[in-house]
Amino acid sequence: MNPVTTPPPPTKTSTMTYLPALEKTDPEIRDLIIQEEKREFNKLRLIPSENYASHAVREATGSIFTNKYSEGYPKKRYYEGQQVTDLLEALACDRAKKIFGVDHVNVQPHSGSPANMASYRAILKPGDTIMGLSLPHGGHLTHGWKSNFSGSLYNSVPYELDPKTEMLNYDKIRELALEVKPQLIIAGYTAYPRIIDWTKFREICDEVGAKFHADTSHITGLIVGGQHPNPFPIADTGITTTHKTLRGPRGAMILCKEENAEAVNKAIIPGIQGGPHLHTISGIAVALKESQTPEFKVYAEQVVKNAKALAERLLKHGFRLVSGGTDNHLILMEVFESKGILGRDASRALDKAGIVCNCNLVPFDKKSPFNPSGIRIGTPSMTSRGMKEAEMEKLGDWMNEALANADNDSILQRIEGEVKELCQNFQCPGIDPSKW
Ligand SMILES: *Cc1c(COP(=O)(O)O)cnc(C)c1O
After folding, report:
1. High-pLDDT (> 70) share of the chain, %
2. Count of CB atoms within 10 A of residue 79's CB?
3. Is-catalytic flag, 215?
4. Partner residues linked to 320 by β-bridges
5. Choosing from 77, 97, 250, 352, which is the catalytic residue?
């Protein structure tokens, strides 16, 4: 055989074993990590709350800070040995304060749900009335859902979307607020594809004497990248997760006015948590730094451009989009009435085709949450890979074909192969396939 025409070996650049310590102590877990890396590399990930954390974020998150206990706050800790941790936490807080233009930031919440819990605990009494968007309309569990602490500890009176426009109707929200006189109104959602007018919420809160809590978990990357208004300077309290469009590690922050700073800090510890996860906080600090680069701004712009391009393609194929389209990173698509397939069946078929999304209730859904009428899709992960409008069009075509052939495994398999082929041409932040 002519050695010149021999194909090169698989692109393994180094002879070093990947994850060598794990290979020695726990090959089973190492194998699962590599399997997940391959899955994230070879699929189109459309779950709008997911993303790819960078290598730098993951180096920090996997760092030695996991070893240290730091109950308390910089310069006010219970244990000794805080020479470095104090610097780390102060730096993370300073970065966030500058970026979001707020008086106070707490970077210790373990995730978004405890961040909301601590925020409410800081400014409410049990039994107070809260108004958040109802879960089936796109609100979060922690915004007053009945089986969540927020629905049992507080008197939850949810507002809903307008039945015609499927968007926020600020006049209706104001009317409800005048009627129930809540102590708190919550804005910020998990399945709402439109821009939120924070100033309207501020005005309503001021009129009825409520506090205003903003939860930007989904859209924080868009806010930082200049694609969505920033509520934190005018909110009494607010939270964001750090792992969604912001592209940090799994975690959260509370951002608030100075007058609520002490109550917020106390609500986290001793209120609901013990020691902070400093390794996560170091990853959050890195993500905040990355969010200030010109590349991040381009990413945020492209997230929205991609969502609009995908929405247009799906509309062309006859799908019905809740509210008619999107202004942000996500699309909520009604598939039952427009295409005769239930949401869970749709998301399962798409998963077989290498396109990963989640089924979702649509506003005024008549179906059950376990097999609702819609699916929720988003562009952050694909945009982090460098995909643009041309790939979104292709994706829209694949989704249309997969959903029209949801029972045809050979068609779904063919699409899965085409998706995988496309994915080979795009990097993934934090994943290096040459190491496998
Ligand atoms: C994701 C999300 C949360 C909760 O975050 P977890 O980290 O999953 O607890 C809270 N609020 C909103 C609006 C979210 O999108």
Report:
1. 97
2. 12
3. yes
4. 334
5. 250
